Amino acid sequence: MSTLLLVDDEPAFLRLAAAWLEKQGHRVVTAADGAQARDLFQRERPDLVLLDLVMPPERTPEAGLALVPAFAAVPVVVLTAHAEHELALRAVAEGAWDFLAKPVEPELLRFVVARALAKRGLEMELAALRAARPQDDGMVGVSPAILRLKEMIRRIGPAEVPVMVLGPSGSGKELVARALHAASPRGAGPFVPVHCGAIPAELLESELFGHLKGSFTGAHQDRQGLLAAADGGTLFLDEVGEMPPAMQVKLLRFLQEGTYTPVGGRQPVAADVRVVSATHRDLEGMVAQGALREDFYYRLKGLILRTPALAERREDVALLAARFLADLPRHRRLRLAPDALAWLAEQEWPGNVRELRAVVTTGAALAEGDVVTAADLAFARSGDPAALAPAPPATLAEAVTALERRMITAALAATGNNHSAAARRLGLSRVGLLKMMTRLGLRRSGP
Ligand SMILES: Nc1ncnc2c1ncn2[C@@H]1O[C@H](COP(=O)(O)OP(=O)(O)OP(=O)(O)O)[C@@H](O)[C@H]1O
């Protein structure tokens, strides 16, 4: 049975329309103003909203129009007076699905509702199919550690329990969180990452919970927080060990009750959010030292997944490197030379997959032709031209040119093609660098 939310300030219309729609087999909840409508929308999660645009207290169509986006996760049918075509079109521009002129003809109402519910049904089916489709979770690897991790994600992704991902920096914790989200029924909903250590403590509450206009200097208008943005999806708390103690208390309340209070607000607001958290720190140690609240830790912990260091899955290094090359937006297809594969296998990767990715990406930018060599990778990693294998230089001039080309390409890759920054790195003026690039054929001449 579908639930319809009917919003109108005329009691007689509410009664009649609700009775008619109930006779068609729907469940109907009614609201007489915007605030009540928002509240019921949160609580009842209707499949369709029928919305009168002119209601108390404002009695302006603007106030009604402002409601449309808030309900747009489901089809919204606006009810307008007969002569208000322009208003109806504005409502559609705001995200409404259809409109009906008042006085509403019962048969037309039945038809429009059936059509909107059919759309809703298709959307839900699509979301279910997306969630059920085997996902390419982007996790590359055939090592036992990765296969185990993938299997765990498949099993616990669909569960609603909180998950904590533990592992060294750059080992793929965020990727695991995304894969958990994709494997859950929330997969079509939002995935919202929060890097707890990157947001100043005094801003974190308003970032997470949102704030109301006027709640502090500079709060010129109401602002939604990240919890609201994650409603119906997954909130990823990265580096959760960095969460300031005062925020731990407030988030704990949300984890327990499912509600939070925006900064400057009085009413608790509900959000349907699954929380996945991650850290490379020893949280139990932090609990023992009093830096992390024990109750917060236990609420968050749920199930624990561990991402292995790259050192524990060396067999994946070559596969990962090949994938990173394939992912590059290039016209030519690059491949790894045999000596590059050998070099990759010998290295230690303290920065884990993130470091490997950076080295492969920079090495690819340095490669001449379509083969990435060990020398390219070694240079990319150390930034030291001495790492370059001594290419048999025919003449000194050729060797110098090759070295210039490599150093310039590396500096450009490292600075995201910023000419001034690359010139500074190389100890050149910007104009000097541009001239050299032209001479080396790294840049077309002319303006
Ligand atoms: N198994 C994997 N397959 C493909 N790419 C991976 C894999 N693991 C990690 N990566 C890539 O490595 C990089 C770092 O991964 P991610 O950001 O998930 O690490 P993290 O553990 O969350 O890091 P940090 O602790 O520093 O936040 C990303 O570019 C990610 O796509």
Automatic annotation (TrEMBL):
At the top level of its lineage, which domain of life is listed? Bacteria
| Keyword Transcription regulation among record annotations | yes
Q: Which Pfam families match?
A: AAA_lid_14 (PF25601), HTH_8 (PF02954), Response_reg (PF00072), Sigma54_activat (PF00158)
Q: Which residues carry this modification: 4-aspartylphosphate?
A: 52
Sorted keywords for this record are: Activator, ATP-binding, DNA-binding, Nucleotide-binding, Phosphoprotein, Transcription, Transcription regulation, Two-component regulatory system
- Response regulatory domain spans which residues? 3-117
| UniProt entry tagged with the keyword Transferase | no
Q: Which CDD domains match?
A: AAA (cd00009), REC (cd00156)
Domain Sigma-54 factor interaction span(s) in chain numbering? 139-365
What is the name listed in the Swiss-Prot or TrEMBL entry for this protein? Two-component system NtrC family response regulator
Its source organism is Azospirillum rugosum
